[in-house]
């Protein structure tokens, strides 16, 4: 009887953990989408059209602070649940790299859009 109860408890715990990880994943995706949407809004602002690529890069690094932080935190939560044995520093590096790549993609699109036609 104890074995059956232990097995049932283990299965219930396993399902609960899987649900928590899936929920954390959904939140990380939502955080990513919110950050990308904010960056996209900044990309399309009329005032940015006269900026140089360098000025736009500095500008993009400073916009959307709450969305950026939310993305960082939700991604860290997900990575910590998904890979509990990894060092915390590795998760922070991954989250910061994801943010840097998002900013780089927006700046690259801006630079291509501003480039004179050949």
Describe this structure in words.
The chain has 118 residues and is mainly alpha-helical. Helices cover 82% and strands 0% of the residues. It has one domain (29-41, 49-118). It is built from four helices and no strands. α1 runs antiparallel to α3, α1 packs parallel to α4 (88-114) and α3 packs across α4. It is elongated and about 75 Å long.
Name the average pLDDT: 86
The amount of helix comes to over 70%
N-to-C order of helices and strands = HHHH
Tally the structural domains. Answer: 1
Quaternary state of this entry equals single chain
Question: Main sheet?
Answer: none
Q: Which geometry do the CA atoms define?
A: elongated
Number of strands: 0
Please report the number of helical segments.
4
N→C terminal distance = 78 Å
Structural class computed from helices and strand pairing: mainly alpha
**CA radius of gyration:** 20 Å
Proportion of residues in extended strands = under 5%
Low-confidence stretches: none
Write the layout of secondary structure elements.
Layout: H1 2-43, H2 53-62, H3 65-82, H4 88-114
Concise synopsis of the structure shown:
The chain is mostly helical and 118 residues long. The protein is built from four helices and no strands. Helix 1 packs antiparallel against helix 3, helix 1 runs parallel beside helix 4 and helix 3 packs across helix 4.
């Amino acid at each position: 009887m104890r074995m059956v109860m232990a097995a049932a408890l283990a299965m219930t715990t396993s399902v609960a953990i899987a649900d928590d990880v899936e929920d954390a994943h959904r939140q990380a995706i939502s955080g990513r989408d919110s950050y990308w949407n904010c960056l996209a809004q900044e990309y399309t602002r009329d005032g940015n059209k006269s900026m140089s690529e360098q000025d736009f890069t500095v500008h993009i690094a400073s916009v959307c602070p709450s969305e950026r932080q939310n993305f960082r935190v939700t991604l860290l939560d997900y990575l910590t649940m998904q890979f509990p044995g990894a060092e915390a520093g590795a998760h922070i590096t991954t989250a910061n790299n994801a943010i840097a790549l998002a900013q780089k993609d927006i700046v690259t699109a801006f630079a291509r859009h501003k480039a004179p036609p050949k």
